[in-house]
Amino acid sequence: MSLSAEMRRLRELDWRNLDIKESGSWPWSLQVLCCALVFGLTFAGIHWYLATPKQAELEQVRAEERELLRDYRLRAAQAARLPEMIEQMEVLEARMETLMAMLPSGAEIPSLIDSVSDLALDSQLSIDFIRLRTPVERDFYIERPFDIQVRGDYHRIATFLAGIAALPRIVTQHDLTLAPVEDGEGLRLSMLARTYSYRDNDAEVAP
Prior knowledge:
Elements: H1 3-12, H2 28-80, H3 82-101, H4 109-122, E1 126-132, E2 136-137, E3 141-152, H5 154-165, E4 171-180, E5 187-198
Helix pairs in contact: 4-5
Protein name: Type 4a pilus biogenesis protein PilO
Pfam families: PilO (PF04350)
Organism: Billgrantia campisalis
């Protein structure tokens, strides 16, 4: 059958009266079109039923692969820096040991107060008082504040403060106040000093 005759049959076909039971008598081009349509719908259904879940699994696996690659690169970079990090840790540990050695224990506090008194006397200052306050517990250390009040001229007071800063134990200086001495010459220094001791979890605060 020629193509022109087939096209004429399609034009003359009454589409409203098509019966699937008589599909064998339909024009061959219409049969081919219907077969292609059925095949396409079947393929799409199979793809949706079988391939779509696998596609979701594939995307999940790809995401896991990207995450593993990021983790691998991070660990590889950390491994490359491991010698440097170990060296830095050793430096920090040595620094920590040095600082810990500068913290007096509770039993050493009276000796430290004596050292501060000796500094005042060596600087030719008059001591009004050096008085311990109640220790204050912190997370990892114990703060041991004490009040200092001395009298003398400006240069001797400066020498005294420099001596405190140079002590082998850590002593910080706070709330410094200088005022003229009433009915006399010189200045009066009042300040709060603090030293610190390491807090052992099983140790009690020493008075």
